[in-house]
């Protein structure tokens, strides 16, 4: 796993424009490594950083970050065995119980995640689970709507990192809790689609403890010369496999101790 950049500045901008077009206009593209087989994870993060710069320049506001591929269920589903991070902008947020459009996405899927809201700056290297818990204001349940821009939802790590970890929308809700008041390892979650249970799991599926995923995220941010600002909203990664959704579907994610998060999907 090389951490070196292989792409030129021109290639980074070119690939960023390709991903941005696919994200904004909702069409599938081949994974980037088809054209650039030597692309590294560092190249993927360089494309992602350029994408973030462009979204900020066009008026989006950074709300926080997301960890991905942090549970075995997700790693097995996607065939990628190393966690990743991505950014979350204000315009990706959707209110709880709202109708979420699918026509501006390629092939959306939903996943249940524990989200953290921080009240201190976090930076690495060597950020630990305890550092994260000490900097956590509260946790709350969330659903991420992922939408790989790659054909067939098939990718490798450099490509998915460049596509901002497939992130598309996110919904938070339920009941916020202080981390000291609950056992964050043993929270059960059940995902229902149209009233039927379609996935279930426990929060320990995420690297043994979801705060571990946030520590990993902070350490990756630090490698990129960034830190996690106080007041960030951070998602720790899908606990179960992701579930495809289409217009007409309604989703309820029920979290032990944290309440539930609901949404429905429309054309
Ligand atoms: C990559 C993003 C993974 C998660 O929670 O594991 C992710 C993907 O599966 O498309 O967001
Ligand atoms: Mg996710």
Can you tell me about this structure?
- The protein has 267 residues and is of the alpha+beta class.
- The chain has a single domain, classed as Fumarylacetoacetase-like, C-terminal domain (Fumarylacetoacetate hydrolase, domain 2), CATH 3.90.850.
- It has 6 helices and 12 strands.
- The strands form 2 sheets. Strands 1, 2, 4, 5, 6, 9 and 10 form a 7-stranded mixed sheet that branches. Strands 3-12-11-7-8 form a 5-stranded mixed sheet, with no helix packed on it.
- Helix 1 packs across helix 2.
- It is globular.
- The model has no long low-confidence stretch (mean pLDDT 97).
- Bound molecules: 2-oxoadipic acid and magnesium ion (MG).
What's the gist of this structure?
The protein is α+β, with helices and mostly antiparallel strands. The protein has 6 helices and 12 strands.
Give the helix/strand layout.
Elements: H1 9-25, H2 41-57, E1 62-68, H3 72-78, E2 84-89, E3 99-101, E4 109-118, H4 129-134, E5 136-146, H5 157-162, E6 167-172, E7 188-193, E8 196-202, H6 210-223, E9 233-235, E10 243-244, E11 250-255, E12 259-266
Parallel strand pairs: 1-9, 3-12
Antiparallel strand pairs: 1-2, 4-5, 4-9, 4-10, 5-6, 7-8, 7-11, 11-12
Helix pairs in contact: 1-2
Residues 66, 68, 111, 113, 144, 146, 237-238 line the site of magnesium ion.
